[in-house]
# Entry
Amino acid sequence: MNIVIAPILLPLVFLVVFVFIKNTRVGSPLAILGFGLQFILSVYLFYQILNLKIMVLQVGGWQAPFGITLVIDQLSAVMLLVSNLIAFSVAVYSISFVDKYMVASRFYAFFFSLVLGVNGAFITGDAFNLYVWFEVILLSSFVLITMGRSKDQLEGGIKYMTLNLMGSLFFLAGLGLLYGKTGTLNMAHLAQIVRVNPEAGLLNSSAVLFFIAFGIKAALFPLHFWLPASYHTPNVTVTALFAGLLTKVGVYALFRFFTLFIIHDREFWFLFLSLIAVFTMLVGGLAASIFYEMRRILSYHVISQIGYMLMGLVVFTPLGIAGGVYFMIHNMIAKTNTFLISGLVKKVNGTYDLHQTGGLLKSHPVLAVLYIIPALALAGFPPFSGFFAKFTLIKSGYEDAHYWLTSVAVLTSLLTLYSMIKIWNKAFLREAPSPNEGFSCVKLKIDELLPSAILGIGSIVLGLGAPFFIDYLSEMAVNMIHPHNYIQAVMGDLENLTLLKP
Amino acid sequence: MNSRILNIAQKYLKILFVVFGVLILLRGHNYPGGGFIGGLLASLAYVFQGLLKGADKQASKSVSNGLYLGLGLSLILLSVLPGFFMGNAMQGIWWDFSVGGWDLKVGSPFLFDVGVFCVVIGVSQLFFYSLSRY
# Structure
């Protein structure tokens, strides 16, 4: 099963290559080739997982609780697929939006190392290894934010770095306590211990620390401040990449930990998480409605949508988990796409400020079509992915009698629609307030429109293929709630190791 | 800095640092030591040179092009590959040689150590020169 490590090795190969290559002419095509290969690899892995359900690699031949285990299960496979699709389309987008100075400062090397970290976080089966991948992501994203060397980028970057380092600190502290209590950090082994040991409630101290750490990473309500402070500063390519990948890694970690081994005290944890989910949805949605800078609106939207994903975890029925993950992949695609469009609007109108934009429907109808697909998908209109994601979530919440949570989710949907319509009206529908000759005749090239088109097709495929995806995700959700297959696949026959530490 | 004593001492210290770094690197397989600490020691040689000649002159092309960094990362990547094709990925694969009565055991983890050694030299120089420029 050596293929399991390939999503880590492939970006590493390109990372090494891009330490040496610093010019745009060779760099851009090579980067597209690299991300294309990675996308093909992730499609292949997804196809394998459809039959095999789970693939395990004991790295270096060390058996499970002693060595590091890499696991691709159904959740990892689908996350890999979507994140590599996003990385590929952002790489195509970067041809026009990343200048030669950024390439000379090794933009693509850090791009690959970010994707290396994200892939690693998705496939690791070891809690400490997950921490290491978080650090890889954090370091490379800090460099990517501050790459333009402007003052506000440095400010945003330092806010981002400081708050996320705090998150890492909490994560590490939680891991230390967990290791002291159980004597293992292998997730499958932890899951096994928690399911047989009556004293599992003692893990609560670690659970709180993990919640804070992942809450910061995922930008949950009281811990979300770094995101709107930093996301509007960097190059739009970087913002689009971050919006698609960064916070979702935090949500992925929450899903992994809270289904696999933090499963005790469910009454407390799920009441607590549902409150957090409600506030995250509302605060993000309301804050987005008062801004007129496109990237700020979209950044607050990232936060608001995290609440929906958390809602899936709160409901904790197979349908709820499936809906949460479905919403996550839908949101990664559509959100990245809206950020890409905002960069194109900036290119045509010269600004992100919605007070000064306008007239794009007449001058660039293709761009308008490309915008309306992710916008309607995010708002939740039927043929697109968002409808099925929200429908699944709201249905599961209603069936499980989470009436408050469900009604807030419906309300937030309206707020999303309001913001999307605001951008549509101000940038596309109305006449430009002051016809700016220099900008309005900008022709968009095919390589600028192509990434949005790819992601738009992704949203449509995800929507039209909903029966397939819901089936796949429901099976995944059952396997996540009852992780016997996962434990069996990782731990093998070492059942006598259950109580490593008395 | 213009100190004659340091200037003369530096010539000998440089060799000492590098040799000692490599020794620590080789010893690291079974005893305390290894690529990281050895790399730190070896990079001291360059740091001393930089202190004497001034960071701007010393910031050689090999550093700014990331030669050490790239070389080290490539070696680390190479060390993964034997295991990838001959067993579990990242597994240590050992080859026995006997050269003139000496029994040498060379394994893929050694490549990894050398890779770390090079990366540490590259990165510490990068830190040192970019910090001393401001």
